[in-house]
Amino acid sequence: MIRLAIIGAGSMAGEHAKHFSRIEGVEVVAVCDMELAKARDFAGRFGIADAYDDLEAMLAREDIQAVSNVTPDGVHKRTSLAAIAAGKHILCEKPLATNADDAHAMAQAAEAASVINMVNFSYRDAPAIQHTRALITAGAIGQVRHVDASYRQSWLVSNAWGRWDQDSQWLWRLSEAHGSKGVLGDVGVHIVDFASFPVGDITRVNCELTCFEKAPDNRIGDYLLDANDTALMRVTFANGAKGTLQATRWATGHHNSLTLSVHGDKGAIRVDLDASLDEVQVCLDDNVHPARWSTVKAPSTPSIYQRFIESIRSGENDQPDFAAARRSKPFLMPVLSPVRRIEAWTLQCNQRRNAGRFSAHWTPSR
């Protein structure tokens, strides 16, 4: 029996609890949150025996082999390093850290402690994206030339997930002072992984971030709404392919939509997770000239929760591990790091134009 604890008691932590509870031979035995009442309520809802507000005390339990870290982004480093120091295998929510140095320190600590470590890029669970990677690796579309990827949410214009202007679980995601790196740090990391996992590493990026006005003076109570809510990226992949990646919270008509198109010199692949998690559209071989598309069923794939548990059982660390997540940071962090300072200024200057903007580009040093 693998006994696991959850750090954090928010809505995403509930998803972790549900997934792990479905895996045979796994028991979620404890949850820890800064608010003990919240932890106790969470434990009651998910049938978890023990609730804590003292992380050190929970991690001191020898019967707990692994943790799932579902805390806010800004405390991933502190809580993850504590778990690693206690010898616990760890699955951490994305993004791994809020800067490249912290991500590097976390990857080094996990390697030194020889604990299984993985990051929850959850959309890799979709059989469609796994099959897309397999087709590209096999050369089915030839040399990749162009990539389009989009992550569209609409919770700033839709109440389908609740009232963003009244609920702290949404407001903090709009405020740098409350630990948010905006849409780029929240779901932008997903779309970057969604594109680079099948196509290959990104080596150059030019990014424009925008923070639109959402309230008078972009403030609601204690929350200064200064985090970016739209991100547009032009990227170059290691194989020379060019791409456009975007993430936004303003995509009216899309609750949570991920799409990917990959075009090569011999064919193309399309993925739309709204349409299907386990089907891909392909234009290959004799269908290239008439531009005909067909549907291919993707084989099933285990979830990251299943792969994390299997890694613990086998001792072989599956992907994406902390080192893989760290490699995504070098090009995201130069874009993210100055956002608070520059956006605060541009918001003040551009309020009448209804947007604060920041753009940056990055190329790796040789």
Automatic annotation (TrEMBL):
Q: Does the keyword Oxidoreductase apply?
A: yes
What Pfam families does this protein's entry cite? Answer: GFO_IDH_MocA (PF01408), GFO_IDH_MocA_C3 (PF22725)
Query: Known SUPFAM superfamilies for this protein?
Result: Glyceraldehyde-3-phosphate dehydrogenase-like, C-terminal domain (SSF55347), NAD(P)-binding Rossmann-fold domains (SSF51735)
Listed A to Z, the keywords are: Oxidoreductase
Source organism superkingdom? Bacteria
Matching entries from InterPro entries are given as: Gfo/Idh/MocA-like_OxRdtase_N, Gfo/Idh/MocA_oxidrdct_glycsds, GFO_IDH_MocA-like_dom, NAD(P)-bd_dom_sf
Instruction: Keyword check for Heme, yes or no.
Output: no
Q: Indicate the segments forming the Gfo/Idh/MocA-like oxidoreductase N-terminal domain, all copies.
A: 2-121
Chain ranges of the GFO/IDH/MocA-like oxidoreductase domain:
130-270
Which Gene3D superfamilies does the annotation name? Dihydrodipicolinate Reductase, domain 2 (3.30.360.10), NAD(P)-binding Rossmann-like Domain (3.40.50.720)
Please give the PANTHER family that the UniProt record associates with this protein. BCDNA.GH03377
Know the name of this protein? Oxidoreductase
